[in-house]
Design a protein that fits this description.
There is one protein chain. Helix 1 (about 5-10) packs antiparallel against helix 5. The protein contains five helices and six strands, in the order H-E-E-E-E-H-E-E-H-H-H. It has helices at about 5-10, 60-70, 95-110, 115, 125-135, and strands at about 15-20, 25-30, 30-40, 45-55, 75, 85-90. Strand 3 (about 30-40) and strand 4 form a beta hairpin. It has about 140 residues and is an alpha+beta fold. About 35% of the residues lie in helices and about 30% in strands. The chain has a six-stranded antiparallel beta sheet.
Length: about 140
């Protein structure tokens, strides 16, 4: 199953990704977040940064609802995320291959067209993506 190290390896294999300094992980492309550690809210206490859960950009409400309804053991949300195209992903519930797909899709939705249009996971000229996925297994 996947973990925070896998998120880091896969996200950093994508073009023009920057990791923001945080207590967990926080990745951006073109100053737009696409995957980060879940900052769990706790009544009367500071937020707890959960590196076992990733917040993932999914693009729109329809995709969010499809993930939440289709795989409730993997994806969830909270009222704080209502109306936002974000889901929480339980990393231990996904394979590294599935995580790569989810992280890459999130990156594609946030990257400028000039970057996203050039990325092809199966492209032999991108061995860094395949290598990152293989190392994460």
């Amino acid at each position: 199953m996947a973990d925070a190290d896998d998120v880091r390896r896969l996200a950093l294999a994508l073009p023009h990704v920057v990791e923001i300094d945080s207590d967990g992980f926080d990745f951006r492309v073109a100053d737009k977040g696409f995957v980060w550690s879940y900052p769990e809210r706790r009544p009367g206490a500071p937020r707890l940064i959960r590196t076992d859960i990733a917040v993932l950009y999914v693009g729109d409400e329809a995709e969010k609802q499809a993930l939440l309804l289709g795989e409730p053991e993997v994806f969830f949300t909270t009222p704080a995320y209502d109306g936002l195209p974000l889901v929480m992903l339980r990393l231990a519930q996904v394979t590294v291959d599935r995580l790569q797909e989810l992280v890459t899709d999130a990156w594609r939705m946030r990257a400028p067209d000039s970057l996203a249009g050039n990325l092809d996971d199966a492209d032999p000229s991108r061995p860094d993506l395949r290598k990152a996925a293989q190392e994460a297994r």
